[in-house]
Every structure is written in C-alpha cells, then in structure tokens.
C-alpha cells in the first residue's frame, strides 16, 4: 500500500466563522492554528497547506486568565540602540484589537513560507460584522 500524499486537486477548503467573545486567547489561538494547518483533516500532510479559511469576529472581546491582562507586554525593536518599544496588552487591544490574536496564532504556525501562506487564510475583525458573507461560512465551536 502506498503512502497517500495530497495534491492541490484533493484539497477542499471550507470557510468557518469563530466568535471570540469571552474566549481565552491562547486556547482559541491553538484551535484556530489547528484548523488553519488542516490537522483536523484526514488528508493532512506536513509539507502542504490543506487548511481552511477562518473568520474571527469580536476579537476585541478576547480575554486572558489571571493577571496577564495587566502584566502582558508586546515588544518591538527599531534596530537602533535603545530602540525597544513596550506596549501593554490593554493599550494594544485599544489600538489594534486584532494584533494579539494574530500574533498568538502566528506563533503556533510554521516559521517558513508555508506558515505565512496559512496565516493569509485568517481574517480577524474587532466587531461582529465581516465582509465574507458571500462565502457562507459555517459556525465553528471550540
């Protein structure tokens, strides 16, 4: 018996919508990363992108457990000496509500071209409205 290797013709992509309201950031990100990679499908292969599209709504209502919402910081560096910038989680959620979830999911995907290709299938919106109604996304519960 030969080992099955999926071809682009075998891949069937679906659209899912996920409501992030009240969900814990890390747990939600790990479920989303699993579906984006396609590891929930029987045709999964590590060298191919067989995952589905995910639309996340209410990303500004995601929560953290414990005191992390007060203690968590995001860091960026300009590349120059003394160029480290620190942004607390609560200010980041006011400024860019989709950034925390996108960064969490990106950390759970491969760090190569394949991971960047998978991340393009993630659509995150801070409100409950999204422009992907034509794709008829199914509701996905975790």
Strand and helix layout:
Layout: E1 15-19, H1 25-37, E2 53-57, H2 68-71, E3 73-77, E4 84-88, H3 89-95, H4 99-106, H5 113-119, E5 122-124, E6 138-139
Parallel strand pairs: 1-2, 1-6, 2-5
Antiparallel strand pairs: 3-4
Helix pairs in contact: 1-4
Give a written overview of the molecule.
The protein has 142 residues and is an alpha/beta fold. It has a domain of 94 residues: Alpha-Beta Complex (Ribosomal Protein L13p, Chain: A). The chain contains five helices and six strands; from the N terminus they run βαβαββαααββ. The strands form two sheets. The protein has a four-stranded parallel β-sheet with strand order 5-2-1-6, with helices on one face. Strands 3-4 form a two-stranded antiparallel ribbon. Helix 1 packs across helix 4. The N and C termini lie far apart (35 Å). The mean pLDDT is 97.
CATH topology of the domain at 15-65 and 97-139: Ribosomal Protein L13p, Chain: A
The strand count comes to 6
Low confidence ranges: none
Residue-averaged pLDDT: 97
Any idea what the CATH superfamily of the domain at 15-65 and 97-139 is called?
A: Ribosomal protein L13
Measured by DSSP, the beta-strand proportion falls in: 15-25%
Helix % is: 25-40%
> Strands across the major sheet, in which order?
5-2-1-6
- The CATH class label of the domain at 15-65 and 97-139 is Alpha Beta
Distance between the termini: 35 Å
- Do you know the CATH architecture of the domain at 15-65 and 97-139? Alpha-Beta Complex
Helix-strand makeup class: alpha/beta
- Tally of individual helices: 5
Biggest sheet details: 4 strands, parallel
């Amino acid at each position: 018996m030969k080992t099955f290797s999926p071809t682009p013709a075998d891949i069937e992509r679906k659209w899912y919508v996920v409501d992030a309201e009240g969900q814990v950031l890390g747990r939600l990100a790990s479920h989303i990363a699993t579906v984006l990679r396609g590891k929930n499908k029987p045709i999964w292969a590590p060298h191919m992108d067989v995952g589905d599209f995910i639309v996340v709504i209410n990303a500004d209502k995601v929560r953290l457990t414990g005191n992390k919402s007060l203690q968590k910081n995001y860091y960026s560096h300009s590349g120059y000496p003394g160029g480290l910038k620190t942004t607390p989680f609560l200010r980041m959620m006011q400024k860019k509500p989709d950034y925390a979830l996108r960064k969490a999911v990106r950390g759970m995907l491969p760090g190569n071209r394949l991971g960047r290709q998978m991340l393009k299938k993630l659509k995150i919106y801070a409100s409950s409205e999204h422009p992907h109604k034509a794709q008829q996304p199914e509701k996905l519960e975790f």
